[in-house]
Design a protein that fits this description.
alpha/beta
Length: 272
C-alpha cells in the first residue's frame, strides 16, 4: 500500500516522542508525504539525528527538547512549532514510558510517572495545541495500546494510563468536532525493532507472542506509520473518535496472553 507523495503537502505536525522508535518512523512518514514536522523528547540527544533525516526529505524540520509532564515546556514546544511553520495541523501524542512491574511491587512514584507522561502529557499537549488547531481544523492522533483491553500482568500502570488516553480520545472527538478537529488513536501491538519490545519481551516471551498472534509475526514500524498516514490525512475526513488497533489480531487472543507476560516478568527478573 502506498500514498501519494503530496498527501500532506502544506501541513505542519508536532510529534511527541518523535526522536526514536515508533514515533520516529511516524515522523519520517509524515515528512515523506510533504508535511513539515517538529519533534519533541525529554532527551535532546535523541532529536538531532532524526531532525536531520526529516530535513533530508525536503521539508522543514524542528527539534524541541522538552518534557510533556511540564505544561510550560509543552506550551513552549507548541509556540516554537507555530513560529517555525506558521501553523499547526497535526498533533501526534507519542511520548510514553513503560516497564514490567507487578502491582504489588509498584510504588506510587512509579505508577504516577507513567500516568504523568502518557495520560497527563497527552492532555497537556492537546490543551496547548487547541487554539492553533481551531484556526483551520486539524487532527489529533494519540498513540495508545491494547494492554487494558484485558488484564495484563505487570502492566497496571500503563494499562491505567492508556485507558485514560482512549477516554480522552473519545471525549475530545465529541467536544472538538465542531471546530473541524478529528481526534483518533492508534493502539500498536508489539512492534519489532523498538525499545519497548527489547525491554519488555525478554526471554521466551517474544516467541510466545508471535505464536499467539493470528498473523504470526511482530508488527513493523511501517505498519503503524501507514495507519497514521491514513488517519492524519483527508482520506479519513469522516473518521473521529476511533482507536485503530494495529497488532495483527493479538488482542483477540487475550485469554492466552497471561503466560507470555509471566514469562517476560520471570526473564526480566533473571536478567536484573
Amino acid at each position: 500500500m502506498s500514498f501519494q507523495p503530496d498527501l500532506l503537502q502544506g501541513k505542519a505536525a508536532l510529534v511527541t516522542g518523535g526522536g526514536t522508535g515508533i514515533c520516529r518512523g511516524l515522523s519520517l512518514a509524515l515528512a515523506a508525504h510533504g508535511c513539515d514536522v517538529a519533534i519533541t523528547s525529554r532527551r535532546a540527544e535523541h532529536l538531532e539525528p532524526t531532525r536531520r533525516e526529516l530535513e533530508a526529505l525536503g521539508v522543514r524540520a524542528l527539534a524541541v527538547a522538552g518534557d510533556v509532564r511540564e505544561p510550560a515546556a509543552v506550551d513552549a514546544a507548541v509556540t516554537q512549532t507555530v513560529d517555525a511553520f506558521g501553523r499547526l495541523d497535526i498533533l501526534v501524542n507519542g511520548a510514553a514510558g513503560n516497564f514490567l512491574c507487578r502491582a504489588e511491587d509498584l510504588s506510587p512514584n512509579a505508577f504516577g510517572a507513567v500516568v504523568d507522561i502518557d495520560l497527563k502529557g497527552t492532555f497537556h499537549m492537546c490543551r496547548a495545541a487547541l487554539p492553533h488547531l481551531k484556526k483551520q481544523g486539524g487532527v489529533v492522533l494519540n498513540i495508545s495500546a491494547t494492554l487494558h483491553y484485558f488484564g495484563t500482568a505487570a502492566q497496571l500502570h500503563v494499562s491505567a494510563a492508556k485507558a485514560g488516553v482512549d477516554a480522552l480520545t473519545r471525549v475530545l472527538a465529541v467536544e472538538w468536532g465542531e471546530y473541524g478537529i478529528r481526534v483518533n488513536g492508534i493502539a500498536p501491538g508489539p512492534i519489532a525493532d523498538t525499545e519497548g519490545v527489547r525491554r519488555l519481551l525478554v526471554g521466551p516471551a517474544k516467541d510466545r507472542v508471535v505464536e499467539m498472534t493470528p498473523l504470526r509475526r511482530l508488527g513493523a514500524i511501517d505498519d503503524v506509520s501507514k495507519a497514521a498516514l491514513y488517519l492524519c490525512s483527508d482520506l479519513a475526513s469522516f473518521v473521529s473518535g476511533v482507536t485503530l488497533v494495529v497488532d495483527g489480531g493479538l488482542w483477540l487472543t487475550s485469554s492466552r496472553m497471561a503466560e507470555a507476560w509471566d514469562a517476560a516478568v520471570a526473564a526480566a527478573k533473571d536478567r536484573s
